[in-house]
From TrEMBL:
Transmembrane segments: none annotated. This is TEX9 protein. The keyword Transcription does not apply. PANTHER family: TESTIS-EXPRESSED PROTEIN 9, TSEC1-RELATED.
Length: 380
């Protein structure tokens, strides 16, 4: 922002006054208000960016903490919505008991063969076989939320099958079932296992895609957070700069206001001096006019005296004594007139020096009382 400058025209002693001081002060006030509004907008934007940054960080923390919570503890709703989690827990339990099952496999088969005559016991044994097979098929779902490969999952599914699976899959009453029935049973069981494996692999792919999406979202969020932090720092520096500019503008505005007050005082004093000069000029002009009228009257009287002197010259021979007396009177009047003329010439010289003031107040009128005073002054 550029700093405003004020240039005051005219000397302090002269009558010229800066006409744009009020406009300049108004412009400075308007600029100050604009800076304040801009500062408020920057503060609002900064607060908004801080809130957005906090929301992004909170969502990032929730995203990062979600897989840990899924590994440690599952809620009842997650168990109802996601059957794979149930398979993970049952699979972990089945792998923990796998050595124990191998030890008691022969004993279990012997016990089941002794009870092969009962049909209900066959159904119970078949359900147990299906449950154990299902637990063995779902061995690879334990790490679905932490990021794993499909090949690793397949290898874990193949390696996680127990050695005594044939003894568990085939019914315990093998002596009563023929070879073809066993083959048909094994084919059906293999088809079911393949379908379950395909579904588990599909779920694994979905989980991998979700993990990749979450990683990309996390990366985008981190980039957005760094960008917002840089933007916030830049805006904070700009806010500080605008604040300093506003303070400088306030100081300059205060200095200009003080200068305006001083100029107003000087203007008032100049107006008073101008009024006094105008009044003195009007009085001087009145006196000058009276002196001019007096001079014209003296000229007229002089002309009359010359005419009377001519008339008296014709009668001079007859009335010499009267003319001598009259001559004395005329000489006396002449001396008085000369003295009056000298005074008038001095007054005229003084009035010529004040000619510039007289021209400014030439159109002013005068009162009757001043006229009488001027007449009395002329007679004196």
């Amino acid at each position: 922002a550029e700093s405003p400058s004020l240039q005051v025209c005219g000397a302090r002693g002269g009558p010229s006054v800066p006409a744009g001081s009020g406009a300049v002060s108004g412009e400075l006030l308007e600029r100050e208000e604009r800076y304040k509004r801009l500062n408020a907008e920057l503060e609002a934007k900064r607060e908004k960016l801080m809130r957005q940054t906090e929301e992004v960080m909170k969502s990032q923390q929730e995203t990062l903490s979600r897989p840990i919570s899924l590994q440690t503890k599952y809620s009842e709703d997650d168990k109802q919505r996601d059957p794979l989690c149930l398979k993970v827990s049952s699979l972990t339990h089945s792998h923990a008991k796998l050595p124990h099952k191998k030890k008691c496999a022969s004993a279990s088969m012997a016990q089941n063969r002794t009870c092969s005559g009962s049909k209900g016991k066959r159904i119970t044994s078949s359900s147990e076989i299906n449950l154990e097979t299902q637990n063995a098929d779902d061995v690879a779902v334990l790490e679905d939320c932490t990021g794993f490969s499909l090949a690793k999952t397949a290898s874990e599914i193949e390696g996680g099958l127990p050695d005594c699976l044939d003894d568990d899959i085939i019914p315990n009453t093998a002596s009563e079932i023929g070879a073809e029935a066993q083959i048909r049973f094994l084919k059906a069981k293999l088809r079911v296992t393949q379908e379950e494996l395909a579904s588990v692999m599909h779920e694994c792919r979905k989980k991998d895609d979700e993990n990749q999406n979450l990683k990309s979202q996390l990366k985008d969020t981190e980039e957005e957070r760094t960008r917002l932090q840089r933007k916030i720092s830049v805006q904070q520096s700009q806010a500080e700069k605008y604040k300093m500019l506003s303070q400088e503008a306030n100081k300059m505005c205060e200095g200009l206001q003080q200068e305006v007050v001083a100029l107003e005082k000087e203007l008032e004093s100049l107006k008073r001096v101008q009024k006094q000069a105008a009044s003195s000029q009007s009085a001087t002009e009145v006196r000058l006019n009276r002196a001019l009228e007096e001079a014209e009257r003296c000229k007229a009287e002089l002309n009359k005296l010359k005419q009377s002197n001519k008339d008296v010259a014709n009668q001079e021979l007859k009335t010499i004594e009267e003319l001598k007396a009259e001559n004395k009177k005329l000489q006396k009047q002449k001396g008085e007139l000369i003295i009056g003329f000298k005074k008038q010439l001095k007054l005229i010289d003084i009035l010529k020096r004040q000619k510039m003031h007289i021209e400014a107040a030439r159109m002013l009128s005068f009162t009757e009382e001043e006229f009488m005073k001027a007449l009395e002054w002329g007679n004196d």
